[in-house]
Amino acid sequence: MEDKIGVFICTGYGIGEALDVDALCEVATGEYNVPFCKTVESCEGAALEAINQDIQSENLTKVVIAGISPRRYADTAFPPDVIVEKVGLREQVVWCLPPNDEDTQMAAEDNLRMYLARIEKMKPLVPFQPEEELSRDLLVVGGGIAGMTAALEAAAAGYGVTLVEKSDRLGGWLAKQHKSIPTKPPYRDLEETGIDALVSDVEANPLIQVFTSAFTAETAGAPGLFDVTIASSGNGKPEGDVLETVRVGSIIQATGWRPNDPRPSLPFGDLEDVILNVDLEAMVKEQGKITRPSDGKEAKSVAFLQCGGCTDKEHHSYCSSICCMTSLKQALYVRDGGDDAKAYVFYEFMKTPGKYEDFYRTAQADEGIFLTRGDVTEVVKNGSGLTVTAKDTMLGEEIQVTVDLVVLAAGMIPNAADGEIIRALEDAKINIEDGDSEAKREAAAETIEKYSHHEGTQILNLQYRQGPDLPTLEYGFPDSHFICFPYESRRTGIYPTGAARQPTDGKGSREDATGAALKAIQCVEMTWRGEAVHPRAGDTSYPDFFMQRCTKCKRCTEECPFGTLNEDKEGTPLLQATRCRRCGICMGACPERIISFNDYSVETVGEMIKAVNVPEEWDEKPRVLVLACENDAFPALDLLGQHGLEGSPWIRVIPVRCLGSTNFVWITQAMSAGFDGVILLGCKYGDDYQCHYVKGSELASVREKNVREKLEQMAMDTERVELHQLQIDEYDKLPKIFKDFADLIDDIGYNPFKGM
Amino acid sequence: MNPDASPILVIGGGIAGMTSAVEIAEVGFPVVLVEREAYLGGRVMRSHKYFPKMCPPSCGFEINARRIRSNPRITVHTLSTVEEITGKAGEFRARIKTKPRYVTGEASLDDSLTEQLTSERPDEFNLGMGTTKALYYPHDAAFPALHVLDREGLSDSDAATLTQSAPPGAIDLDMGETEKWIDVGAVIVATGWRPYDATKLENLAFGESENVITNVMMERLAAPGGPTGGKILRRSDGEAPKKVAFVQCAGSRDENHLPYCSAVCCMASLKQARYLREQYEDVEITVFYIDIRTISRLENFYYDLLEDDKISFVKGKVAGINEAPTAGNLILDVEDTIAGEKPEAEFDMVILATGVVPETADSPIPFDLEMDEYGFLDGATDVEGVYAAGCAKHPCDVSRATKESTAAALKAIQCVKRG
């Protein structure tokens, strides 16, 4: 069907008073030959219904509404098969520029031109549907409390689960516990762990298939289409024997933790009667009492050293969040030894958050439990016992106690592999053999030395170009470090949970695993519908690669933050569409410009750039292209208007899905079109990054440096392109950014190519 | 996947409730989200920044608002409360009362109209610090993006102005309260928290000295949309603070007030110490604490502040605050329990780290649910089909609230799937 474009120009909200609306209509009908153009007094409520009636009666297939910000509409407000673009004249023109002014009018008209040019190139969206049938089943890796919970909760919603546990039984650390810390009101007393019932629930559930003594030898594919090879991890069968291959839709990684044994770094670490909290727990579970390893004698007095007995931050740079409660619990075990039994707990801070405070009270109320802040300076053998010295206590300068046993609160290390590092290690090994320069071979040797301890740590064995496991953050947790969206990992459809994701207690693990199960279920459902998952949830666009022109440069396969693309031996990108988050970072990376979405492409943005009427130099009206992240910088531009601050009549704004999707041909296009400069507005990057695609704005900043080189080649001033990290609430910084840039153009002069 | 299933009712449109709603809807189930205020976002919208990333809450909110706008399965009722719930899992009925907004959304309003009004009302978004006109836009990120009219705060002359000058159909002064019953399959309680009433802390001078403020007030003072445009100033004289004290556990971990730990105040105060240090090069800060509870990877945030020689930490519970001879200054009664002595303790601004009280403690859900001794609904409630999330369940920070509300979303889906 032939496209029929319609334009609605809103005169309400002061737009009609500030702008020459007839001239705007003339842009649509005259310059763009739009067959239908109408002015409306409002574009909300009943007025919007009237617009929809016109859309239907006029059989419009594409519609541009120039009025309020695109952020003010529900996507569902329009007929589903019509492409609608909204031009925010109110916020970004009328509210921040002087009314009835030539430059304001030019800004409004250019905005309309840009969206008319863009909509002409937009194609309807067709959700991605692979030829193979998508699976709705889940894989859970790890059979501890988090993994078992995830499996049971997913099954309770009707989803089939394959559960893989590397040891020979389910239960993980919970199965090794004697008692549990309180998990429910009134949070005062120890509880049974309930592990046996939980394990039998899992084993009896018809929707859950359990593999113990097994591991994921290979995980190929993508959400909806993961093919997982489950192999034996020993225990009777030859290691590596394939037990089963399953197809699943999404994956939950609940691989738990291991204790961080601080003893090698402690001066008293080699004393026999200095043990770890996990060892004490096992001891009580097995023999029902606490004894000394050195002589087997019952330990009547026990000192607990929190934070592993370390007082320097090097050794406990994160808090394991559970050790305080564990030591209080174990102090109560000690007290089960009789009235004369005594427990001493030395801590820096007693961390019993929330209602665990009531559990702390239980311990405080026990006369045989001594709790004090204190830095342990020494533990020495004293006859058959150990003397613990602590300073800076609340009981005076320095105190000493002699005890039968010292228990170190060992922290948690995540059982997670860093896929990115393992990949770097693999690459380095190849470079050591095939590196084409001495420098390359040296760098490779350095990498191998630095990362060799990651060798053989693989867990998921993903068949991903970017490595066999999830990338990790600081301390090795495969987390996103997002506050608002805690389940976002950098591998679509794979959700880390429990203590593998962050230090957490059993109750926290259960909650976390239940949430992870929801996300895994949601992923298979959205994949089934051909939709993107967070943050572009529901987007049915996906990237299309024009492969004939691909030069196999690998930029897209390396730069996608989500590892969407695999590559063959020659380096050809192989799209795994259901992994895609639709950020467009691959599109920004591609030097051949062969990657596009139906509604967002190098072409749609390029046409917007070309649509701007750039005045001649003697008009003394500079033009500055602003590429703004649609999640944060673009709303900030709206807020600028909302607060009535002064905008710039020189800027022309194009929202981008992520600043990382900026293809730098847009900058050369802008320069060729006569723009005097380009401002890139992206999110904060670095350790506390705010980019919703993790790496997008950072990649843009790297590419910005390359573009400066390109500008030099064009004999342009490199200052003509600048990148700012802008938070959504930093709208008040925009006037200065724009003014400084205008001053700069004044200084260095207009684009020398203007008008050529 | 189940468009015909009964919708899930989510009570409370703060960060927890919004999260539950979008997570449910994106799986494929219908949701009804009921929020008491005129806008979504709840208490987090009043925060200047989130710890530990020091990022604005409106950043994540923008994404959530877009997820709601683009999802036909979510119905939002603002200015609404759930008055009654009957039935059982899979077949609850809920009576929803909606207060009039008086603003129709049919035509847009802007500042030129509000500027013509004269009557002012306390700005509750800024915790009563400052006022707004009776017709006001709640805050920058307001969703729905509509003005609200405070009918009681509207003078007769302003009412006449509105009748005369408002765009036709924009305002309906005769709009009334509405009520309706809806069928729902499951209920998520995400009613959140309110700050502990600092006037109950009789020895801490709140309400006596303007320079003793609470941590939630501090968030507004630091926020660009706050009463001082984001500049942290003494309330008494508008001067920049030079010596600031943070009083931890102001009410929390106290048998006479809130026996539990409120779980977020340590990080909140450390974050606010950073607000101050970012604004003032010379401001000196002392944090008085019982324990610094920076859990998990938040520990680093504390270590970073230890490097700052303008910030000191003193282990000691503040027993009293008294006005100093120097106008507006305050003297703290506190003992350093490690040094075993009373430090010199005159400050020109004091921030009380007041704790978290569940809304359900005073405004219970109209359904027979068992609460714990403090008024929290602890997770899976004793009634099948009703689940709690976020601070309705226990004191928690945003990242824990969001993961729990994601978990509650699955529990509710299981319930409606069972039918």
Task: Write up what this structure looks like.
The complex is a heterodimer of chains A (756) and B (419). Chain A is an alpha/beta fold and 756 residues long. In chain A, the strands form 9 sheets. In chain A, strands 7-6-5-11-22 form a 5-stranded parallel beta sheet, with helices on one face. In chain A, α6 crosses α7, α8 runs parallel beside α9 (323-335) and α11 (419-434) runs antiparallel to α12 (438-451). The model of chain A has no long low-confidence stretch (mean pLDDT 95). Chain B has 419 residues and is an alpha/beta fold. Chain B has a 5-stranded parallel beta sheet with strand order 3-2-1-11-22, covered by helices on one side. Chains A and B meet through α3, α10, α13 and α17 of A and α1, α2, α7 and α8 of B.
Quick recap:
With about 750 residues, chain A is of the alpha/beta class.
What is the secondary structure topology, with strand pairs?
The complex is a heterodimer of chains A (756) and B (419).
Chain A: E1 5-10, H1 15-18, H2 21-31, E2 36-40, H3 45-57, E3 62-66, E4 83-87, H4 89-94, H5 102-121, E5 138-141, H6 145-156, E6 161-164, H7 195-204, E7 208-211, E8 214-220, E9 226-232, E10 242-248, E11 250-253, E12 257-260, E13 274-276, H8 277-287, E14 301-305, H9 323-335, E15 342-347, H10 356-364, E16 369-373, E17 375-382, E18 385-393, E19 396-403, E20 405-408, E21 411-414, H11 419-434, H12 438-451, E22 494-496, H13 506-528, E23 544-545, H14 555-559, E24 565-567, E25 573-575, H15 585-589, E26 595-596, H16 602-611, E27 624-629, H17 633-642, E28 651-656, H18 665-672, E29 677-682, H19 696-713, E30 721-725, H20 734-748
Parallel strand pairs in A: 1-2, 1-3, 3-4, 5-6, 5-11, 6-7, 11-22, 13-20, 14-15, 14-20, 15-16, 27-28, 27-29, 29-30
Antiparallel strand pairs in A: 8-9, 9-10, 12-21, 17-18, 18-19, 23-26, 24-25
Helix pairs in contact in A: 2-5, 5-16, 6-7, 6-13, 8-9, 9-10, 11-12, 16-18
Chain B: E1 8-11, H1 15-27, E2 31-34, H2 57-69, E3 74-77, E4 80-88, E5 91-98, H3 111-114, E6 120-122, E7 131-133, E8 135-136, E9 148-149, H4 156-165, E10 178-184, E11 186-189, E12 193-195, E13 212-214, H5 215-222, E14 243-250, H6 265-279, E15 284-289, H7 299-306, E16 311-315, E17 320-323, E18 330-333, E19 346-347, E20 349-354, E21 356-358, E22 386-388, H8 398-418
Parallel strand pairs in B: 1-2, 1-11, 2-3, 11-22, 13-20, 14-15, 14-20, 15-16
Antiparallel strand pairs in B: 4-5, 5-10, 6-7, 8-9, 12-21, 17-18, 18-19
Helix pairs in contact in B: 1-2, 1-8, 5-6
